[in-house]
Amino acid sequence: MIENLMLGFKVSFSFYNLVYCFVGCMLGTLIGVLPGLGPTATIAMLLTLTYKLDLTSSVIMLAGIYYGAQYGGTITSVLLKIPGEASTVVTCIDGYQMAQQGKAGKALGIAAFGSFIAGSVGTVGLSLLAPPLSEFALAFGPPEYAALMILGLTLVIYLGSGSVTKAILMGVLGMVLGTAGMDPVSGIERFTFGSASMMEGFNVAVLAMGLFGIGEILGMAESSLAGSPPERARSPKRLWELLPNKKEWRVSIAPIGRGSIIGFFLGIVPGGGAIIASFASYAVEKKFSKHPERFGKGAIEGVAGPESANNSAVSGCFIPLLTLGIPTNVVMALLIGAFMLHGVTPGPFIMKNRPEVFWGVITSMYIGNVILLILNVPMIKFFVKILEIPAVILSPLIVLICLIGAYSLNNNPFDIVLMVVFGGVGYLMKKFDYELAPLMLAFILGPMLEKSVRQSLIKAQGNPMIFFTRPISMVLMGVTILLILSPLLMRFVRQQHGRPVEKEQ
Amino acid sequence: MFQRKDIASGFFLLFLGLYVSFHSTRFSVWGRTGPEAGFYPFVLGILMIGMSLLLIIRAFISTRAEEKLKSAIDKEKHMAVVFKVCSYIVLMALYGLLVQKVGFLVSSIVVLIIILKFLEKLSWKKACTIGFSSILVSYMLFVYFLSVPLPKGFIGF
């Protein structure tokens, strides 16, 4: 274990990787502060750029962006009641109240320290759990992978926030988009319309840049027309009281602890991630609190818990990625894209074949957390000033980066056109209340699922019971079925208890 | 309001599902060793048809009394938004089609100036400064820092 960590630190302490880690954290915090642009769109845009870099450095930087954004989003949530990131929405509730009471510094301070502690706890958890899980994953054959992916897709759809029907539709659409190109098993071309550019199917980076990057720009274009100028930043005057006092620490320590654990485990679950972790932590803290009425009025636990949760969730997210090669949310899906760009398939073999990547990334997260803690404390004023840049200045830069990025994938202008088309799609999806995440995840998991299912059936000579006769896949399929039936089961249980049956959403 | 949107998108997805299912039957769906190339998209297409029908039916059932017709001002705003968004899309698509022939620098300058000056309504000075600095930054980033070859076009740079 120690040797692995030493190897990791040797990799992550190299000058280049330190620089990339720093850049990732800075960039992450910056986009975390800016509402609208999120880690997903940024990582999508930078994906193509990382082609020129070493794999380890790329992942270190992209990971830094992800957890940096958790830190950054807090700043605007507390100071302006504008969530920089979806995972910091909850912080707006009590954090802003604290700012109104002149305790902005303490809110930011406890958020930063809580995030650091949780991030470290999460990273330790990652270091401890990843190796045994990798070993366990080696026992996974096609049926187990297929069952796991079915479970993952089901969870993603169920944990979405909108209508389930729409989420399923987006998942199916994502899988359909994934079928375009050459069939992985037989080599037949599907949905290529005779175009050579389409032989490999849609490129994940093009899809991501289009849906998230261009889609976001189109959204920004619309809002600047609607005449709703971004709210002017009101930076509070006093920020030097950043250290919470003893009492506040005492109150916060348990939420930080709970948040770290909740976040870590919710990060592992597909469809989970930082956002759900923060909401869950807030709900838990309110339940556990002796004075729940304080929540919403500036309770420091309402900041400490969620902020810790969203950071440790990032570490949790990496576990399925590094051990099984399965993404649990869109950001991880994009990271898989980064791995594939470098010709490496993430999965249980990464620990054995490319340990420097595996441990280098994990140890870089320790370093990243330290960097962020140091960065955040003095740099808050600077970040708030950034907010005063109107969107019109940022949009052209984003547009250019997306356009060039798409072109640089294959030197094929067709990719640019495709990206723009997806940009339109992403924009329309938002207008018609569809979620993007199920689509992206299904796009990545779909082809993997198909390959596993077909391989399994070939192995079982057409007998579908193979998914239920092997122990691991049987358990996974069982959990999936339970999950699908759970709404019906809940209704049945309520009826038995004589309570009125609640109306279907 | 929600309901009309759902019905529209529901129909779109319904037709998409129909297309996917039909197209996938062109490939063999089931063979000796189990599902073949056409099976998976066929099943997905059917699922899509089913789900979109569900969406449409639900939207129809829960349609409440229609709200008052939008006022004329709203319609104007609506058209302006549609125009703006479509212009962005058209411009970016044109960029894609032209960038190899005309070169990166020229295409970027033209597209950015059009966006900044005419769509975002900035002054000439602002549009040019922002436009040129964005292009400079991205040129530095892509060409010097990352050695990504950018198309030169017939102009030569």
Mind explaining what this structure looks like?
The complex is a heterodimer of chains A (505) and B (157). Chain A is an all-alpha fold. Chain A has one domain (2-496). Chain A contains 20 helices and 2 strands. In chain A, a hairpin with a 6-residue loop joins strand 1 and strand 2 (189-190). In chain A, helix 3 (39-47) packs parallel to helix 13, helix 4 (55-80) runs antiparallel to helix 12 (301-324) and helix 5 packs antiparallel against helix 12. The radius of gyration of chain A is 23 Å and the shape is globular. Chain A starts with a helix and ends in a 9-residue tail after the last helix. Residues 226-237 of chain A have low confidence and may be disordered. Chain B has 2 domains: 2-61; 72-145. Helix content of chain B is 73%, strand content 3%. Chain B has helices spanning 2-24, 39-61, 72-102, 104-119, 124-145, and strands spanning 30-31, 34-35. Chain B has a two-stranded antiparallel ribbon. The longest helix of chain B is centred in the middle third of the chain and has 31 residues, at 72-102. Chain B starts with a helix and ends in a 12-residue tail after the last helix. Mean pLDDT of chain B is 76; it is low at 65-72. The chains are: A mainly alpha (505), B mainly alpha (157). At the A-B interface, helix 8, helix 9, helix 16, helix 17 and helix 18 of A face helix 1, strand 2, helix 2, helix 3 and helix 4 of B.
